[in-house]
Amino acid sequence: MSDELKKIPIKVEPVKPKEPELQSLYAAHKKIYPKSVSGVFAKWRILFILATQLVFFATPWLQWNGRQAVLWDMVNRKFYIFGLTIWPQDFVYLAAFLMAAAFGLFVWTTIAGRLWCGYACPQTVYTEIMLWIEHWVEGDRNARLKLDKEGMSARKFRIKATKETLMVAFSLVTGFTLVGWFTPIRELTDALPTFSFGPWETFWIFFYAGFTYLLANRLREQVCKYMCPYARFQSVMFDEDTLIISYDAVRGEPRGARKKGTDAKAAGLGECIDCKQCIHVCPVGIDIRDGLQYECIGCAACIDICDEVMDKVGSPRGLIRYTTEAALEGKYPESAILSRLKRPRVVMYTLVLALVLISALVSLSMRAPLKVDIIRDRASLVRETDDGLLENSYSIRLINVTDEEQRLKLSVEGLPDIRLLADKDEIVLPPLANELIGVRVQAPPESAPKGSHKIEFEVKSVGENHFEIEEKSSFIGE
Q1: pLDDT, tens digit, for every residue of 73-103?
Q2: Distance CA 476, CA 392 (A)
Q3: What sections of the protein cross the membrane (predicted)?
């Protein structure tokens, strides 16, 4: 190196360490603008939505024997279901109902995927109703997109205010009706003009209304995608024979736009024209052409719109359709899908469901019209009467579970010369009454030596509907 080059100063810039990139754990939310669609499955969705809301809103107004036909009376701990009254002691029926609901969902999911989510789930139903309101006030997809891109103006404020007012009003009516399942809805209606609800009624009306508005209007598909556990564990119940919404890639690929009348095969294209209408109608914003995804709720809107597009381009329907993974792969023809219902998983779930339902129904049909509970007086286990007899005191809880008056007589057995003393020879129990009756049981000392002795209380009905109930207890000797 020459002396001149050695004299040239060399400036060394320090190397700055590369800053680490921050990766968000949460996907940025993008508002989805589902396009309205008509078709066979859209009509079924409307039918299911109307049916579920008719049951929800109309049932509390039905009357039965002078009271609300269906009422979950938490204060008095009675559940009324038309002529049936469920008491806290009947908790087994609630357990049976929950088991039947769970296994019913398992059976349906194994057979037909997430049809419950797409047609009857409250989140889907209320979200769809909110979309109806939005579509009615703001217009279809393009109109809503255009409106949201505009700056705030008097027109936009009026439209948005009208939409939000209707949604809030619907949410409040929903909350009011829900409370009407637990507090007689006619009493709530009478209190409405003065707003003289109880504190708990007021809380639950606004609580449920608030969450209806939040989940169905604000969060919408995010509930299904991120909050609902069903979307996460559904894959456990899916198999290759489960009926799902699928895109036929063999028919559709390679996708691409083409002019009307173009021979797709000659152009090297599949039947999918890549119009993206299946994405525009999807309420959760997915592309069904990417395959089965946990976000898909099985609403079949993509099937309706794709069939409509296929009709316009002159191709056969069914590019997107209900089918099974095995049928789509050619393992068996789609005509054989029904025969796959006999597979072990479906049979097992169905048998368990049938067993639970049959057991609950048989138990209900054999349920005694009276519930009896024997409570021993533990303050004084045994005492001696003036005539030398041993005496134990008991409280007998009698619950009339029917809508009819019951006339009853009490007796006791189990020891020689044992007898029961009560204030009344005959007890009249009004419909659905719950009474505590105090009785005394006496026995000679020679019949009840020191220790505990098994006895049985008998409750016999007096009247046409004769029945007899026996309850075991114990008598303490000297």
Answers
A1: 988 888 999 988 888 878 888 889 999 999 9
A2: 7
A3: 44-64, 91-111, 165-185, 197-216, 346-366
Burial 44-67 (b: 16+ CB within 10 A, else e): bbeebbeebbeebeebbeeeeeee
CA distances (Å), 388 to each of 77, 223, 414, 443, 447, in order? 43, 74, 20, 9, 12
The Cα 155–Cα 152 span in angstroms is: 8
370-477 — its CATH code?
2.60.40.10
Task: Determine the pLDDT at residue 460.
Answer: 92
Task: Answer yes or no: are the C-beta atoms of 244 and 334 closer than 8 Å.
Answer: no
> β-pairing, 370-376 with 390-400?
antiparallel
Residue 403 has pLDDT above 60, yes or no: yes
Helix orientation angle between 122-138 and 40-58, rounded to the nearest 10 degrees? 110
Which of 158-162, 220-224, 328-332, 376-380 is the most confident on average?
A: 158-162
Which residue type, as a one-letter code, is found at position 251?
A: R
Is residue 115 within 8 A of residue 244, CB to CB? The reply is no
**Which residue in 46, 26, 22, 24 sits closest to 36, CA to CA?**
46
Short-list 340, 315, 291, CA closest to 112? 340
Max mean pLDDT among 80-84, 202-206, 225-229, 358-362 falls in 202-206
Tens digits of residue pLDDT in 143-154: 999 999 999 999
Coil, helix or strand at residue 21: coil
Q: Quick one: DSSP state of residue 255? A: P
233, amino acid identity = F
Tokens of 47: 């039918």
| Residue 174 contacts residue 122 (beta carbons within 8 Å) | no
**Residue 1 has what pLDDT?**
52
How far apart, in whole angstroms, are the C-alpha atoms of residue 333 and residue 299? Answer: 24
Distance CA 478, CA 474 (A): 13
- The token pair at 332 is 């068996």
Residue % of the chain over a pLDDT of 90: 66
Name the token pair of 385.
């009467």
> Based on the number of CB atoms within 10 Å of its own CB, is 193 exposed (0-12), middle (13-18) or buried (19 or more)?
exposed
C-beta of residue 271 within 8 angstroms of C-beta of residue 252: yes
Residue 20, pLDDT score: 63
The DSSP string of 388-415 is S-EEEEEEEEEEE-SSS-EEEEEEEESS
Of 384, 395, 373, 377, give the one whose Cα is nearest residue 442: 384
Query: For 128-153, what is the mean pLDDT?
Result: 95
Of 380, 425, 432, 386, give the one whose Cα is nearest residue 406: 432
- What ranges do the domains of the chain cover? 29-367, 370-477
